[in-house]
Amino acid sequence: MIRKIILPVMLGLLVGISGCFPEVESDLQIAIERDDKILSDYLSSNNIDAIETQVGYFYKKDISNETGNQIVNNDNIGVYYEIKTIDGQLIEDYTDETKPPRIFRYTEGGLIPRAINFGSGLAKTGESFTLYVPSYLAYQEYSYQQLILANSNLVIKVKYAETYTNNEIKEIEEEMILDYILEKNLEGFIKTADSIYVKTTKVGDPESKVTANGDIINFTYKILQLDSQTPFAQSIGTTPFQVTVGSESNPKFLNLSLKGLKKGQEIEVIIPSHLGFGVSAQVFPFTIRKDLFDKGFLTQIARPFEPMIFKVTVTNVR
Length: 318
Known about the structure:
Elements: H1 2-5, H2 7-14, H3 25-45, E1 51-52, E2 58-63, E3 76-85, E4 90-94, E5 102-105, E6 111-112, H4 114-119, E7 127-133, E8 154-164, H5 166-183, E9 190-191, E10 197-202, E11 216-225, E12 233-234, E13 241-244, H6 252-257, E14 266-271, E15 282-283, H7 289-294, E16 308-317
Parallel strand pairs: 6-15
Antiparallel strand pairs: 1-2, 2-7, 3-4, 3-5, 3-8, 7-8, 9-10, 10-14, 11-12, 11-13, 11-16, 14-16
């Protein structure tokens, strides 16, 4: 069996996302053999003629596009998809093409479930596939409420709609920010030379020192995705966070946001992802991202390829 030969490689792929879903080799072999049989029986009983890959999933190309661009490693890919279990339980339907596609980067560890990522290398833009996915290339033993059950084998329909350059991603996020400001009828946001949008919601102490590189600043904060009212990160209670402005160990957005502030000042900053937490693993459905982060399966809770809002109250400057 081909997959027995490549088992060590497979194990490396499966733990490629920050140690996500780790399994010892013997457990992985058991999962492979179990899911191989389940998928084989499912395809046979439903008379589905699908192509088996060396990695372990099966696929059918539903729509071809010979004039599309071949997807290659490190492409930023926009997709539409439907994820179901082989028993027909819907996990997520994101197929409405009046909405923008959801984006991930085609790299090892670029997406959960992995089979969509692996399938990218077979596709050209505009092509649609049906993937028949063993649990060890999906969510493995992970479960989430009644939405995802442990060891679920999946049927995934995916359209690899488009690829984007990094500059195109920046343009998309700029449009998202401007649309957000317009739709919410927000005033007072000013775009800086560094391409972040800053609004002062409360002026600071006029006698306070103004923050500059090398200053120590204490502040409380909240960080939200653009489409959410619930912070994905925030300071604990009233305990302020402390950083040295301009430190190379800070994320870019901290150094860009925290300059020129006074004690007592409150600001809101809208930050494109390349100045925020950068590119991390994408997760479908979005619903499970926080749970994966909380359980240690992801190192970054912020979604990639989307702006975020950073709300700050300065408590001290020195």
